Amino acid sequence: MYTNHIVVIGAGASGLMAAISAAGRLRETNSSTDVILLEHKERAGRKILQTGNGRCNLTNTYINPKCYQNDNTDFVMNILREFTPDNTIEFFNEIGVLTRIRSMSSKDGNSAAGYVYPHSDQASTVADSLIREAQRLGVVIIYEADVAGISAAGASGAAGLWEVSYNLNDELRSITASKVIIAAGSKASPKSGSDGSGYRLAKLLGHRIIRPLPALVQLESSCRLCKNIAGVRQDAAIRLESDSRVIAKARGEIQFTDYGCSGIPVFQVSRHAVRALSEGREVTACIDLLPDMTTEQISGFIRASAAHNSQSTLLDVIAGMLNMKLAKALLDSLGIKYRFAACNCNERDINVISHQIKAFRMQLTGYKSFENAQICIGGVSLEDVNGLTLESKLAHGIYFCGEILDVDGICGGYNLQWAWSSGHLAGIMAAQDQLRTERRNH
Predict the structure, then answer these.
(1) Which has the closest alpha carbon to 380: 115, 196, 232?
(2) What pTM, to 2 d.p., does this model score?
(3) By residue range, what is the domain housing residue 336?
(4) Domain-ending residue, one of 341, 367, 393
């Protein structure tokens, strides 16, 4: 049985970073305290392997408060300033991961400016390097360990120690820990290990849990034309409308599916759709299929195309601007026949078509489940956590980091940056607190 250690629960991105940071700080002072990392899957960093389509977009050189969408962005930004994207790049370079920056232009104010990837373009490079670094620093990783509970050690808990019980090989075991870092993830992508079990542990310690909901997830629609346009990819701008107001917008390549829509811009706005739909509100996705053109420019193009060839049908003209499937669906939505001669199209019809191209509407009816989501809205309430240390305000010696907290970022490496920053801070603070305890005891 282990006694008096720093225990980290969850060997995902934030848990690995927390364990490495704590172990590194303890090693600097020749402390006798060890770091124990409990992971309930058979390997560490499984969710890292899925990020960036298997390439691992590990951070972004452009960050501002709009990149995080929870209710307390000051909390997030203060922690990110303590361990920045530059610190992240430097850290990974030091542990043997060569990185590269893929620059992107910003069109909507939310787009990333510089995606950072491992030069290998393999997420396994990142996960494996973190595991090796943890092992180099002497972190003990116990796999397939299901944490059953956390409770104050001893009858009164006066010693300030925590008993962490876990099941391993059908045997209940325990660790007496001076500090515990809960990095158990959210409910998103449960196959990777993020099954929401950390919420139960947090609740046992008295923490409030903001209702977890899927985020960075595909959206479902009742639009009858979905099956007709499934498979189409279109550079477009999407805005969400609810209660007669715009609640979110983004731009990029939208993927139309038989159930609704997907793609990065859809993921960017999904948390707002999910929240509104979960509250019983109606939500409409209004999609601008040609965001670089005005309604007047589109109308002019239709007129010019129709005048150029009197044999052209209206479908021929619209398909000159949009994917054929999308052109057919758009005319279907207006009740206009495909073979209608373009040269016979009047001004009213041209204007109606142009406005439909600029505002193709899809009524949203739902969203995909946690299995499809990359992250979650909600989690452990930030009000119960110290924003300077990530220590619980309710239980001394308990720290939180990563997705288990009520923090969610947009696509582009922002959620992994939160994992690195929060994991680093939790690990450093837990180690420093442990070192103070050691000095007092000696």
Answers:
(1) 196
(2) 0.93
(3) 218-367
(4) 367
